[in-house]
């Protein structure tokens, strides 16, 4: 592969990983990031400050040789801990095996590891507080926030990793004739921090994803290394009662949390003040076509396929996209136009599939996890996996603990759902399932259904 001058716009998680991959392949990389350097400046306010790392993200980090640096940042979570209105708690394990856990990780700490690795990977320069404001693919226009000046940059090949509101996407689609659809979710979020107890211990079990499902809305909590928890309320953006719009005074916040999340409210000091001091967060799904413009530019991550966070796959999907793109470029080292086109052809169906599954998982998390039929099917799915692990793997496990293509996971899950529906018809307990019938149904899954 002939070394080239390349420009990466965006040095968040996907952009920083991309810089590392490109630097290690000998390319001369200049990256631009609109925010300050998070290694020296706290810039997390209002954003999702911890994330769920799973198999696909781990595989990409392994490709860069970074898991040794990342492992000390991880808190394992073995399942969902459901908090009911009466204060009772129920653990729903993520998988059937002890190693099937996901990991809570600080966004900024992980991004810092990736930035350090990028800087050490070769000829990589990252310029912070520089926002792309327009131009074209031959001459990008940037604003330097430190000097409040604008300038032009002639980029070579452009890699757009500048998020869901990507300016590079606009330029690429104008050149490629592609299309973009941005579907805002009518629910948003608010983030809170539950501190550790005065003696430093965690106030919740750190090894679980905590969920307070309440039907039309939910609260979740993930552990941080300092024994605090990042807590997120997902709720309608507008409405007279349970909405971000309605919770606009200390009295309303305290009444709402006291009624719907009383166990959490008793743990959270200065709840109303912190809630009202945090910005509202918005959620949307981005789908687009025409990810590249010949060999001049390509987009990836949220710029090409932003999803809602309810399957814990936004970061993992972006990392996996980096590896898919690199594989295509390695196959076509001197023909990046073909590599970029192949990247979209290989990846598009998969990111559309995880976008759909993430939206479905929101309903599951905020409502279905309390439903007796859902719980029965979930227990049965794990039992079927225990009995026939080479033929039946639940959808959650296919997405979180495997690296099979998302579209294949979605297809398998649809067929497995039909099996679960048939086996649980008129049945209330796993012990009453007809496992002879189950054996025949599982055996009838097509050969390509065998899990990898």
What's the rounded overall pLDDT mean?
Answer: 94
Low-confidence stretches: none
Helix content: 25-40%
How many DSSP E strands?
20
Strand share of the residues? 15-25%
Tell me the number of helical segments per DSSP (H or I, 4 or more residues long): 15
Shape: globular
Sheet with the most strands: spatial strand order = 8-2-1-12-20-19
SS content category: alpha/beta
Rg value: 23 Å
First-residue to last-residue Cα separation: 32 Å
| Biggest pleated sheet | 6 strands, mixed
Oligomer: single chain
List keywords for this structure.
452 residues; alpha/beta; 6-stranded mixed β-sheet; 15 helices; 39% helix
Structure, explained:
With 452 residues, this protein is α/β, with parallel strands linked by helices. It has helices at residues 13-24, 55-63, 67-70, 107-120, 167-176, 250-260, 262-267, 271-277, 302-305, 314-331, 336-366, 372-387, 395-400, 406-424, 435-443; strands at residues 5-9, 28-33, 50-53, 75-77, 79-83, 89-93, 102-106, 124-128, 130-136, 139-144, 149-153, 157-160, 180-184, 187-194, 209-213, 218-223, 229-236, 284-288, 292-293, 297-299. The strands form five sheets. A six-stranded mixed sheet has the order 8-2-1-12-20-19, sandwiched between helices. A six-stranded mixed sheet has the order 6-5-15-16-17-14, with helices on one face. Helix 2 packs across helix 10 (314-331). It is globular and about 65 Å long. The chain starts with a strand and ends in a 9-residue tail after the last helix. The model has no long low-confidence stretch (mean pLDDT 94).
